[in-house]
UniProtKB/TrEMBL annotation:
Protein name: Exocyst subunit Exo70 family protein
Family: Belongs to the EXO70 family.
Residue ranges of coiled coil: none
GO-annotated biological processes: exocytosis; protein transport
Domain Exocyst complex subunit Exo70 C-terminal: 295-652
InterPro entries tied to this protein: Cullin_repeat-like_dom_sf (IPR016159), Exo70 (IPR004140), Exo70_C (IPR046364)
A molecular function GO annotation: phosphatidylinositol-4,5-bisphosphate binding
Keywords on record: Exocytosis, Protein transport, Transport
Organism from which the protein derives: Arabidopsis thaliana x Arabidopsis arenosa
Cellular compartments per GO CC: exocyst
Pfam families found in the cross-reference section: Exo70_C, Exo70_N
Amino acid sequence: MMAESTGVDRGIQSLIAARKSLKLSLEKSKAIGLALGKTGPRFDEIEQRLPLLEAAVRPIRADGEALKDVGGNINRAVGPAAAVLKVFDAVHGLEKSLLSDPKNDLSSYLSVLKRLEEALKFLGENCVLAIQWLEDIVEYLDDHHVADEKYLSNLKKSLRGLSEFHNDRGGGEEKERSQLRLDGGLRNAALDKLENEFRRLLKDNSVPLPMASPSSLGDQACIAPSQLPVTVIHKLQAILGRLRANNRLDKCISIYVEVRSLNVRASLQALDLDYLDISVSEFNDVQSIEGYIAQWGNHLEFAVKHLFEAEFKLCNDVFERLGLNVWMDCFSKIAAQAGMLAFLQFGKTVTDSKKDPIKLLKLLDIFTSLNKLRADFNRLFGGAACIEIQNFTRDLIKRIIDGAAEIFWELLVQVEIQKQTPPPSDGGVPRLVSFVTDYCNKLIGDKYKSTLTQVLLIHKSWRSERFQDNQLMVEVLRIIKAIEQNLDVWMKAYPDQTLAHFFGMNNHWHLYKNLKGTNIGDHLGDSWLKEHDQYKEYYATVFLRDSWGKLPSHLSREGLILFSGGHATARDLVKKRLKAFNDAFDEMYKKQASWVLPEKDLRDRVCQQIVQAIVPVYRSYMQNYGPLVEKDASSSKYVRYTVVALEKILSSLYMPKPMRYGSFKGTPPSEKFKNDVDLRRTTSAVV
């Protein structure tokens, strides 16, 4: 039993021990399982870190020579890159200064901007070098397996981006974008501020030239001084230097041209130049704008000698460091935009107007104005940049010379054509005669002779023809002699010989009086003038004899002495003779009441001769025989005029009518003159 009990106990002990062992094993297995569960993520972490560990230990496994050289290569690559980064930091350090207003301290602002430009230049030149060094070291590391492939891949990608950034630096907009990437647009912002400061300096110091009045133009100094202070010019030049260095010169010139041309236009506003825009369709003939043409010469001289001269000098002062072509181009744009072409266009408009003799004088006035300014034109507008003004001026001068020469050479033809027209019904001086004598005196007078000679000489030279020194005078004398021939034709055209003689007296005196003492009269000679004076005297004598000279015969005293004892018979005879006188006088007065003697001296003389021929006879007759009829109830029928009234009537004969406009007609332009050229004339004009 004891033995069995002992055996059982041992078996139980064995089971308990086994259970404990099993339990312990289970707990260990459980602990191991838990430990294994915790170890899995660590293995994953280790697995992930293995490439890094491998990369870290790769240099240890790399070739010894490669490891030896890699340090120096890395240092050489990192050096330029570090310098580039340092400059980048310096660029950002300039931002505050460059975003301030350059007005406060322009010199410092320009200095800072120049530092920015130098920094950007350094970056532009050295960024590529730094990238190349980095690319070389990456390639070295890759070739010698000194670095991790993934790391090298990322590094290559970054370097490739930098390389593309710097290789994308072409011209125009691409280059501009590249620069913007380098400085974030800081330089452009600074340049914009400089442009604004350039504009401000110009506007603040550009003041229109003051004038007391347009009439005081002749009192102005010939050459206007520079209109900008020297300090301002120096600032403008400094700004131009920086803007030019950054390819902003064209914009700067545009600003300058805009501001200065507006200033010139403001100076011209006081002159009231609206007439420069007039078109040919807005006026009938040159006479209607004659006043404008006179103003035009004064205004053009003022604009050239005062305004454009000043702008020419100022452009040179401001842009002289940039070269002749730059400042001349700038000046040419100012001249064009400020209105120089408008002045020339007005001259062209005059040349386009219809052709008439007065136009010749106005063309000569325009030529004189241009010729007076020829040296100024050549100096101011002679450069290649002013080619438009040069061409316009040359064309205008050609039009003036061609037009003036054409009108002059047609004058003789026009005078000859006029002989076909009827003479004036009032026996006065035809408008043609008075106009041509006055006109020819002007053509060879001090004002126009030299200019007309020069114009005709140039015109002949263009046609390879010779112009004689005295050719102008010869042509004028031919015109005057054509007038003489016209007078002969017109006198013969009158059916009334008394009116023909009155006409001859009138016109021969007009020629004598208006040509004596003139250049034309001197060339015609004393004998020619004396001949016309004699013709005047002859026709005056015949006129008086055949008209008013017949009236005194009606107051004959014949037979009145015989009837001195018979008052009734004498009274009837006096009545009859007074009635005949009155009727003849009334008829004569009615006939000649509309006749005119435009020359006052001739009119006074003729009227005095008529008075002397009639009034003394009438006075004596009335004193002796007037009482015979004055007491008669019907005396008013026979005594119509008192002596005083008769003298007053005769003294007031031949008064000219008020001036009016008429026509010096000819043929159309294609065949000579326009038919509707208006010129001043009296009622005695040829119509």
